[in-house]
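Entry 12.
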Amino acid sequence: MQLLDRIGIMVKPTHRCNLNCIYCYDKKYRDEIKNDMSLDTVEEISKKLGNFAKSVNWIWHGGEALLMGKEWLTEACEIVEKYIDTVDFKLQTNGTLLDDDMIETMIKLKINVGVSYDGTAHDVSRGSGNKVFSNFKKYFNKTGNCGLITVIGYHNVDKLIDTYNLYKENGIKSFSYNIATPYDMNGTIVRPLENPDEFLDKYLKFFDYWLSDKDGVSERTFMTFIDLILGSKSLPCYYDTCVGKWLAFNPNGDIYPCDRWYPYNLGNISDYKNIANVFYHKNFLMLKQQQADKRLNCLKTCDFSEYCFGGCNGSSLTLYGDATKPDPNFCYIFKAMIKHVFVKIKDLSIEELDNINPAVSKKLKKSAYRGLSTIKQIIDYNWEGRIGL
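Predicted 3D structure (tokens):
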């Protein structure tokens, strides 16, 4: 059998967590699935993936994956590498357990760590803020690289600039502001956007501040919007069709198209001799059709749908129970953001590119971007007189 070049997987070895974040979408499953993943399950997943793909992007997720401990993670990664030719390990953590010994373990296992930290408002949403940021800095200083995700909502939208400057002061060159989902796993709106315009006003004011910062650093969400405007085809999963490119595994070995898509259980790893057959499961085929229907409906009714693919299927599933309609909260925010970013970018002249955020400047220059003002100058240029016609 010809092997797939690459697949991404999200492996949840546990649903346990030592925090109780206000916006967590995984809480429901802490009581439903109490067992941790066994090493036998890790081996079965690894063996079958090794017979399916040449390369695997393997993300340890949770729950809090570091609760599994250094010994378990070491054994698990050794098992994975035994069966898969090329594997890139990543691990997302709340950072509380990322002490010196754990940092050394992550480095030894070549696991790229991402930390969730909510900036200057961290203790409002998560707790243990000082400890988390201290652990993050120790890991960052030892490796020179650490993914940093800050979930934003009404708990910290007033602190975006303060948090951004905190990151800059600590030498962080790249991070991501991720907007919190307002739904729990039953589709109930638990954190409603009671005044989305107020939220957007503060969020987009931060964009203006960030764009004009000549000493600025990269922020993934805004950089993604610039990529969208430039026509990039390399985008995060929530602005692209991710179906078939990812799989998720729960502690008991159950398989899903992604970690939030629980209505679309694709069976258990033990059910398959050939994991390629997971993509012919009735729930997977149903999801593909629903995503196609959503995409078609969005194209018919929305001028922005070519940029977003109707948004994340996970949000649709938690809200409606299927993937046939987009999340209206996502649509409202997305439209406002992409219009705002486009207006700010379109009039930039070549000269102005040296006076904006260097991450943006570099991207625009690399793409040979020309703003409308520059294009107008080219059109109005006296070409005939210059070449003697």
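Annotation: Residues 382-389 have pLDDT under 50 and may be disordered. The chain has two domains: 1-195+214-328, 347-386.
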